[in-house]
Amino acid sequence: MLSDAVLAGLDPEQRTVVTAPAGPVCILAGAGTGKTRAITHRIAYRTLTGEISPRHVLAVTFTARAAAEMRARLGALGATGVQARTFHAAALRQVRYFASRLLEGRAMPELLESKARMVGLAAARVGVRADRTAARDLAGEIEWAKSSLVEPGEYAVAATKAHREPPHEPAKVAEVFAAYETLKRRQGVIDFEDMLRAAVWGIEEHADVADEIRAQYRHFVVDEYQDVNPLQQRLLDAWLGGRDDLTVVGDASQTI
Asked: How far is CA 249 from CA 13, 33, 40, 149, 211, in A?
């Protein structure tokens, strides 16, 4: 049987992961321990035994390269049809698919590939000098805030509590953050965090969208789980909708 072939060559710990019942399953594994092998074989084993359908699986990674590698591994194991994507790619696909419902006929805003240029413009508007390097640093700080579900008016307190070391005084960063959000809206563009938020909002506020997504995706796998930020976790929770067929793998020693 193909499912037996999937188990061949696995060590006892990997075999335990692969054959574990439906989640939640948390795998703690460091680099070089075969964690990607374990989770791809787990997906393949569950699909090849008929426990789950590959089209109902969403495997989430953090880079497009890792997603492509996962799809290739699953294909080699005979588990075709599984969706393996980054959080951003999965969210973008869903927002685009449901755009006509979510935007009520309005065109989907253009996706901003890089924040730095617009952050530099926002900084100038509030009197903060920012060369290219400083603009990148400010953009990184704004990205942290948005990924942490922190609004501009909350930034100064949140940054202090999180022991951040921003490139300017927290109050000034908050001003740049607010100006950036205003400038973005005026220009009709969104950034990657906005797109993740749109995906969350689409599920949390539109029952029909939630039902359709949850009917499609019923089994979830997340690689490098230690890197999931609060915004990504909220999207994952929205996808799950209270269900618990979730497998996560991560290395606590790599957490930043």
From this structure: 13, 11, 11, 24, 27
| C-alpha closest to that of 38 among 256, 207, 254, 250 | 250
Task: Give the span between the Cα atoms of 24 and 244, in whole angstroms.
Answer: 5
Supply 36's token pair: 């990607």
Helical ranges in the chain per DSSP H: 2-7, 12-19, 35-48, 64-76, 87-97, 99-102, 116-125, 132-147, 155-161, 170-187, 192-205, 207-216, 230-240
Q: Strands 189-190, 246-250: parallel, antiparallel or unpaired by DSSP?
A: unpaired
How large is the C-alpha radius of gyration of the chain?
Answer: 21
Delineate the domains of the chain, giving CATH numbers in brackets. Answer: 2-96+206-254 (3.40.50.300), 113-190 (1.10.10)
Find out whether 247 and 42 touch, Cβ atoms under 8 Å. Answer: yes
Predicted structure pTM score = 0.89
- Which residue, chain included where needed, has tokens 């901003």? 112
Burial status of residue 226 (CB atoms within 10 A of its CB: 0-12, 13-18, 19 or more): middle
Q: What is the pLDDT of residues 39-89, one digit of tens each?
A: 899 999 999 888 999 999 999 998 999 999 999 999 888 888 899 999 999
